[in-house]
Every structure is written in C-alpha cells, then in structure tokens.
Design goal:
It contains 2 helices and 5 strands. It has helices at 57-62, 78-95, and strands spanning 7-11, 17-22, 34-40, 46-53, 67-71. Strand 3 and strand 4 (46-53) form a beta hairpin. It is elongated, with a radius of gyration of 15 Å.
Length: 103
C-alpha cells in the first residue's frame, strides 16, 4: 500500500509482478460503487477492476453483507484468476469490514 492510495501487486509463482491493483484515496462512498482498478504490471494500462457494489441504503445500514464484482482479462491464467478472487477478499477485510472488540 502507498501512504494515501492503496496499491497492491499481484505476483505469480516466480514472484514477478503480473498485475497491480490501485484503489481510491477514500473508500467511504455513499450511494456509489467503490472501484479498485486492476492495471497491467507497469501500472499504466487498466485491464479490469474490483468493485464494491452499492446495494442500497437499507441493506448497507442494517446488514453486514457486501456485494463485489470482479472484472479481469478472459485470457488471464487460471491461477491469477484465483489470486484475484483472493485479492477481493483481502480488499473486503481491509476496507469494508467493521472491527468488533470481541475476542
């Protein structure tokens, strides 16, 4: 992660950067989707996105359920697609889950 804007590198099994994920500086948006852009290895060209989808005021306020969408290139290696799914879970836990003080 960078200081203000969250940024993640997606690595392959040889620990080479395959994709980068760059998020917004503020993940607290009301009435709108929050998008994390999936970029090429250089971080220059967008190739997809992970988005937390706005599901309405009632659901957002009264439940802890979130809806996410993932878009990535169709020709992406199946292992990297699995890593993208894991990145979606990581983004959910890091930015959208409330922490309880219960152990």
């Amino acid at each position: 992660c960078t200081f203000i804007i969250p940024e993640f590198s997606i690595l392959n099994e040889a620990r080479e950067t395959v994709l980068k994920i760059r998020g917004p500086c503020c993940t607290c948006r009301c009435c709108a989707d929050v998008e994390f852009h999936v970029l090429d290895a250089d971080g220059a060209l967008p190739v997809g996105k992970i988005s937390k989808q706005w599901s309405g005021l009632v659901k957002e306020y009264f439940t802890d359920a979130d809806n996410f969408g993932i878009q990535f290139p169709m020709d992406l290696d199946v292992k990297m697609k699995a890593v993208m799914l894991g990145a979606c879970f990581l983004i959910d836990f890091m930015f959208f889950e409330q922490q309880n003080n219960n152990n």
